[in-house]
Each structure stands twice: as structure tokens, then as C-alpha cells.
Amino acid sequence: MKISHFIRRFIWIIITLKIIDIVVATIHQSKVYDQLTALCIAFTLLVIGYCILPKSDKHFIKTIKNNLSRHQTYTFKKTPVISNQMTYQNQAVDISRQQYQAQSTPYLNELSMLKRQLDEMNERIESQKAYRNQLSKQINELNIKYQQLNELTEQHDGLVEDIKRLQDQRNQLADAHVTDEYQSFMDYQSKQKLATIDNFDGYQFETFTCDLLKALGFSDIKRTQGSSDFGVDVYAKNGDTSYVFQCKLYASPVGIKAVQEANSGRSYYNCKKAVVITNSYFTPHAISASEKLDIDLWNRDKLASLIAEANV
């Protein structure tokens, strides 16, 4: 037994004795006011005494009260103590429990079924939420792709307009190039340039060849130095194709020796193409050898057209 329970019960006994004393004293009082006052004090002490009782004692009192009034709301659950002085009939409680079980079983079954339905509904709700989140994610991705598509469409429209504008400019430039006046002017310019080239020395002609190749879009243009150039004067590249050039500034037609030197230079420099360029023309033997050796020949007419194309 807990000490606190013992103290509470001891105080409750003192309060009970005090209440009995007050009740006895009230019987001997003649005034009604004094009797009511004494009864109020006794009731107050009774309430205080009930409040300080341990929970088990309160439950015990309620059980006795319910048994006396035939109400089965509470069940006596005090620690069992063997007593020969008190007997307790539990037949009515057993009957009530059987009736309760018989009446509650259908409701319990229905409640269990409703609980299962609720669980299934919650699972469906969670599944729908997950599906909704997935759809929301896909919708966001589609919106992003749609925006990107709109941006690409705008860029495409802008590029189409730029292409049309450039095509118009190209057509205008092409029309200008094919006009007789422009062609006549370019032919005159080429002839004037060729007349100037005829007065060049070998070094000046090689320098002019480098400038012409640069204007035509060649890159990595270099002049070979010294007497051991193996018949090559200029090295250049056009894209991925490497070239060697043999420059011949002659007043008479260029012979087969220049073609052979260009072929040797191509092998030495390990290039794909070899070209002999001159301000004159080539002999038939040189032309025949170039076809067999796959050497390109740029004669005076070719040089004039390249000058007009490069506008140098």
C-alpha cells in the first residue's frame, strides 16, 4: 500500500468522524439557521473527503452504489481479496455482457467493413494524388518544351528572313557580275594587271601569287626559300587540301620541265595538288604531261579570270 493512500484514508476517517459529530450536534440545536449552517459544513467536509480519497476507493464506493441501485455501469476491479463476509452475484452482469456481444457483433462487423472500405478509399486517394503529381510534372515539362518550341519557331522565322535577304543580295550581286559593263570593266582591269605582271621579276611574281591565293581564300601560305626548293615556290592550303605552286614568269610558252618540277615538289612536300602558274601559256608537251601527272596548269587566261574573281 502506498503511504499517500494511507494518509488520504486517515484524513478521510477524521473528516468522517467530524461529520458525524456535526450531525449529532445539529440534532440538539434548536435554531433552523444553525442547523442549515452545520449541514452545509458537513456537506462541504463530505465533498472534501471524497476528493482526497484514492482512485481505487472512489471506484469501490461507485461499485457499491451501482450494485445497490441495480445499475451495471461499473465493474468492481479491486485487487482480489478472499473474504467470507461478502458475496457478489455476477449473473446479471454476465447476461448483460452476452446481450451486448450479441447486439454489438453486427455493428462491429459493419464497422470493420467500413474501416476496410475507408482504407481502400485512402489508398485510392493516395494513388490519385501520386498520379496527379505525375501529370503535373509532365504538364510542366510540356509547357517548358512548348516555350522552347516557340522560341525555336521565332528563331527559325528570323533565320528564314535572313536567308531570304541574303539570297536577294546574292541575286543582286550575281546580276551585277553578269552585266556586260561589269564584265568588260573586269576584263579591262585584268588586262591592266597582267600588263603590270609582265614587268615583274621572279620574286615580285611569287609575292603576287601569295596575295592572289590569300584573296581566293587559301590559308597557311608560305614561300619556299633557297635553291633546294625542289621546283616549288609557294606552299598553301585550301581547306584540308594542301597545294604546291611553281611560279613561271615567262614571255614564251612554258615547257614540260616546269610540270616535272611541280610533280617532284608535290612528292617532296607530300601535298595532294600541284599547280604551275604563269603569265604566259603552256606547250603541247607540257599540257600532255600535266594530264598524265595530274598537275593543274594556270595559264594567262586562267590567271586573268582569277584576278577578276579575287579583285586584286
TrEMBL record:
Keyword Plastid carried by entry: no
Domain Restriction endonuclease type IV Mrr: 197-307
Keyword terms of this UniProt record: Coiled coil, Cytoplasm, Hydrolase, Membrane, Transmembrane, Transmembrane helix
InterPro entries referenced in this protein's UniProt entry, alphabetically: Restrct_endonuc-II-like, Restrct_endonuc_IV_Mrr, tRNA-bd_arm, tRNA_endonuc-like_dom_sf, Type_IV_Methyl-Rstrct_Enzyme
UniProt key word Transmembrane helix: yes
UniProt feature coiled coil, ranges: 108-176
Bilayer-spanning residue ranges: 12-30, 36-53
Listed GO biological process terms: DNA restriction-modification system
First and last residue of the signal peptide: none
Any GO molecular function: DNA binding
SUPFAM superfamilies linked to this entry: Restriction endonuclease-like, tRNA-binding arm
Domain of life according to the entry: Bacteria
PANTHER family named in the record: MRR RESTRICTION SYSTEM PROTEIN, SLL1429 PROTEIN
Designated name of the protein: Restriction endonuclease type IV Mrr domain-containing protein
